[in-house]
Amino acid sequence: MSGPVPPLCLTVAGSDSGGGAGIQADLKAMLALGVHGMSVLTAVTAQNSLGVHGAWELPPEAVTAQYRAVVDDIGVAAVKTGMLASAVLVETVAELLAGTDAPAVVDPVGVSKHGDALLAASALDAVREELLPRATVATPNLDEVAQLTGIVVEDEDGMRRAADAILGHGARWALIKGGHLAAHGGEAVDLLTDGTEEHWLRAPRHDNRHTHGTGCTLASAVAAGLAKGRTVPEAVTEAKAYVTGAIAAGFALGAGIGPVDHAWRWKGTTTR
Fold it and tell me: Which among 214, 228, 250, 258 is annotated as catalytic?
């Protein structure tokens, strides 16, 4: 006798050998949130707590073969994209998403936590023109907003302008992550909007430098919520709560920046 099949969620992203971000973070978050995580690897990075020491992208045919193998046999209820590295991979994944009847969370990964480039400058046009129009939710941080739109966000009004610009490229919803803003009353502020509804998501800002994988984890948590049938505002609100706890429980690893703790709810703690 087999058990019930959990909701199915697919991540299309790069590998982080240190286990804090990328595919590894995505699958940990999906497991923690009760969905079955599947993966399409786009690139391999040699990475640890100090930074990215090398990156090698996979050929488009390898990405397409992985995607088709999963979607055509197993199926998928939501897709999350992360590191896509190059214009050709962005275009490849955008085409795959266009043929998939499932919501897509697009995390337009541009740089790592350590400032290492994870997307070729030549790929920015492809992200704007091919990938963002496929996004149910796009989840750029403020650095990625600047890369994609030229808008330098310094306050909450700037977050609104950034969201409008992202929506202008075709995303149905924009989640502008304000974690890099100077603290507003000690809060970490994100803006979710579809151009009509506006949701400001505020959470305590935790004094913990071990935040590697935050963006990957948030986008994967949103995708997990969508796979479970949540609305976009519900999925994002739940994801924000999960990530806030994971940041609070982030732990030291190696000599640099450690990861968020994806298993914090299982451990029953949010502080260390």
Answer: 214
pLDDT one-digit tens code per residue, 125-136: 999 999 999 999
Res 271: pLDDT: 45
Which of 28, 113, 177, 240 is catalytic? The answer is 177
Q: In what order do the strands lie in the sheet with 36-48?
A: 51-57, 36-48, 8-16, 78-81, 104-106, 137-138, 173-177, 187-193, 198-204
Identity of the amino acid at 126: A
To the query of whether residue 216 is one of the catalytic residues in this protein, the response is: yes
Judge whether 177 counts as a catalytic residue.
Answer: yes
The per-residue pLDDT for 205 is 84
Catalytic status, residue 42: no
Q: Say whether 9 is catalytic.
A: no
| Segments of the chain with pLDDT less than 50 | 270-272
With a threshold of 0.90, does the pTM exceed it? yes
Which residue of the set 19, 158, 178, 215 is catalytic?
215
Q: What 3-state class would DSSP assign to 138?
A: strand
pLDDT of residue 177: 94
75 among known catalytic residues: no
**How many helices (DSSP H) and strands (DSSP E) are in the chain?**
9, 9
